[in-house]
């Protein structure tokens, strides 16, 4: 009579530790080592997702081991699914570069948003936060911020970005870097602004150096 | 259960006091995050004269996440599958917390007036639609008369 191991194409020595191992490795009877890699990866993945776990694994490590395990599966089985999963987690880790998904902003970015005083809000008696729809004037301690929307159209004047309660816009921007009203990508704008600043700084530096050289010509 | 956010209460009140023409949304008595919705088919579409029932649910993280909306009435439409799931950008990647229940329902009504077979959810319907639009519109009209009868 055939044993469970025979039926499932398992080696006699493979300890059937859990159903998960059998399922992932059993089909083609791969070397035992590979089962361990995969099961370790899955275990660490599960552990890191468990908030009560004492040994927290940094998510980066989990991502790495998980993709390692998946590529192992992919090479040995040529598994379409593994390749697809690999693609997915890679594109997610890279913030879906080239994709439509917008990643969220950092806490530093939130801190750098322009604060607006209630008295400076246009039509302040009727203005409300587009997210919670509460009037700004009804808020006893309003903390209002302006997003840098349409900054490129503004010539010299103050930017006319959309205004939100900080409390409301923060959780949104952490998931998605676009303005809820006009879909302006605040992170992209911030990046262009930084690049421009760096460009100007570099130019200034170069000019400085040139002047220095000229200086040597005159006085040297 | 956590208290209902003020925004949901305000939206619900306005849906009742200032309803969108051709659209009703009534919160369930047991769960104020669950709405029974009806949408009238746009007059210039094969869904005209039909009244479609939908269910709408506001997830816990609404408005940071889109409401979940599904057709309960059967409908022949390239962007709505046989389970009633809707392929609409503002319900997925293009959701914004500045959108509301009423704007979402208006978008769905607009989708009835402007089927988009190039971005299908119900693949068989979309193919029929592209192959023979006249016939597809005829089927949509038949289904409307059969399933979306005003109660």
TrEMBL record, chain A:
Residues 1-11 have a biased composition (Basic and acidic residues). Residues 129-183 form the RING-type domain. GO terms for biological process: ubiquitin-dependent protein catabolic process. Residues 1-35 are annotated as: Disordered. The keyword Zinc applies. Keywords: Coiled coil, Metal-binding, Zinc, Zinc-finger. GO terms for cellular component: nucleus. Pfam families: zf-RING_2 (PF13639). InterPro entries: RING_finger_E3_ligase, Znf_RING, Znf_RING/FYVE/PHD. Residues 187-214 form a coiled coil. GO terms for molecular function: ubiquitin protein ligase activity; zinc ion binding. PANTHER family: RING ZINC FINGER-CONTAINING PROTEIN, SI:CH211-59O9.10. This is Uncharacterized RING finger protein. It comes from [Candida] railenensis.
UniProtKB/TrEMBL annotation, chain B:
The keyword Transmembrane helix does not apply. Gene3D superfamilies: Ubiquitin Conjugating Enzyme. The keyword Transferase applies. InterPro entries: UBC, UBQ-conjugating_AS, UBQ-conjugating_enzyme/RWD. Residues 3-149 form the UBC core domain. CDD domains: UBCc_UBE2N. The active site is at residue 87. Keywords: ATP-binding, Nucleotide-binding, Transferase, Ubl conjugation pathway. It is an enzyme of class 2 (transferase). GO terms for molecular function: ATP binding; ubiquitin conjugating enzyme activity. Its EC number is 2.3.2.23. Belongs to the ubiquitin-conjugating enzyme family. This is E2 ubiquitin-conjugating enzyme. It comes from [Candida] railenensis.
């Amino acid at each position: 009579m055939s044993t469970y191991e025979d039926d499932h194409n398992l080696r006699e020595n493979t300890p059937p530790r859990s159903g998960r191992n059998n399922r992932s490795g059993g089909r083609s009877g791969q070397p035992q080592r590979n089962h361990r890699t995969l099961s370790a990866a899955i275990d660490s993945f599960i552990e890191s997702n468990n908030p009560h776990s004492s040994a927290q694994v940094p998510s980066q490590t989990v991502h790495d081991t998980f993709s390692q395990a998946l590529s192992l599966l992919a090479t040995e089985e040529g598994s379409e699914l593994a390749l697809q999963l690999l693609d997915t987690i890679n594109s997610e880790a890279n913030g879906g570069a080239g994709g439509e998904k917008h990643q969220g902003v950092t806490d530093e970015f939130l801190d750098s948003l322009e604060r607006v005083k209630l008295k400076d809000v246009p039509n302040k008696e009727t203005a409300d936060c587009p997210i919670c729809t509460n009037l700004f004037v009804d808020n006893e301690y309003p903390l209002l911020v302006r997003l840098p929307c349409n900054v490129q159209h503004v010539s010299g004047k103050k930017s006319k970005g959309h205004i939100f309660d900080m409390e409301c816009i923060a959780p949104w921007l952490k998931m998605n870097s676009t303005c809820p009203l006009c879909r302006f990508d605040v992170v992209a704008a911030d990046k262009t602004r930084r690049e421009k600043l760096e460009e100007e700084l570099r130019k200034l530096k170069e000019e400085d150096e040139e002047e220095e050289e000229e200086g040597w010509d005159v006085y040297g | 259960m956590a208290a209902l956010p003020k925004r949901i209460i305000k939206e619900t009140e306005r849906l009742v006091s200032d309803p969108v023409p051709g659209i009703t949304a009534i919160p369930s008595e047991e769960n104020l995050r669950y709405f029974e919705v009806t949408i009238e088919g746009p007059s210039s579409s094969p869904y005209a004269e039909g009244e479609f029932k939908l269910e709408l649910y506001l997830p816990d993280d609404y408005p940071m996440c889109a409401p979940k909306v599904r057709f309960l009435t059967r409908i022949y439409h390239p962007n709505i599958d046989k389970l009633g799931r809707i392929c609409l950008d503002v319900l997925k990647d293009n959701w914004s917390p500045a959108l509301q229940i009423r704007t979402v329902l208006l978008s769905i009504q607009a989708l009835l007036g402007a089927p988009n077979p190039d971005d299908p959810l119900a693949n068989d319907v979309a193919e029929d639609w592209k192959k023979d639009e006249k016939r597809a519109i005829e089927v949509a009209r038949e289904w409307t008369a059969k399933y979306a009868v005003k109660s």
